[in-house]
Amino acid sequence: MDKNQLGIKYMKEGNWEEAIKAFNEAIEQKPNEPAAYINFGNVLTAVGESERALKFFEKAIELDSNAAAAYYCAGNMYYQLERFHEAKQMFEKAMKINPHDGDTYFQLGMSLVQLDQSRFALPYLQRSVELNERDSEAWFQYGLCLAKLGLIDEAINQFEQCVQIDQNHADAYYNLGVAFGYKEDDKKALAMFNKALQIQPDHLLASYGKKLIEKEGNGLH
């Protein structure tokens, strides 16, 4: 097993110290190959050394300007640091190199959402669910983006898709409740708030939504 593969094995086991040692040796053996730098950066990310991790991703990009994984990992790092404009730039570069990765579309969409550019985020989030059909969080965030843009019926469809995949997604049920409430379907809204609270009894927003509907009456409580 080469040093890169050994490092990946240690990473999967959560043995960060041995992983760092293996990737360091891989870099010493083949200093011009980007993979070890990307993997080293991922270990540093896992142990919370964000700034050092970025340097390794940058080195990988310097060695190979088509290393999509390096751009993607750097984008994730910038996203975690709330440097969303830089994250967006990295994900855009990763997407150009590898236009078939659903995670890249998702992260690019989320970066745009964080930059208050939901309308621009929408097609990327849509593409992410097309590529990752079983990703409940992608469906959820796509639904949230649609809701922000006032596209309530379309948002409902995405939240329903989310809970089909993950039946314990309390936030999706809560947002279904909000959407049905917006459409003045109090019976469905109450059912969704109750479902969210069944999954997460301390869901404050769902609790508030439920109380609001019950306060309005309509014989639903």
TrEMBL record:
Keyword Magnesium among UniProt keywords: no
Keyword Nucleotide-binding: no
Sections of the chain in a coiled coil: none
PROSITE patterns hit by this protein: TPR (PS50005), TPR_REGION (PS50293)
Entry keywords, A to Z: Repeat, TPR repeat
TPR repeats by residue range: 4-33, 34-67, 68-101, 102-135, 136-169, 170-203
PANTHER family, per database record: TETRATRICOPEPTIDE REPEAT PROTEIN 6, UDP-N-ACETYLGLUCOSAMINE--PEPTIDE N-ACETYLGLUCOSAMINYLTRANSFERASE SPINDLY-RELATED
Protein name: Tetratricopeptide repeat protein
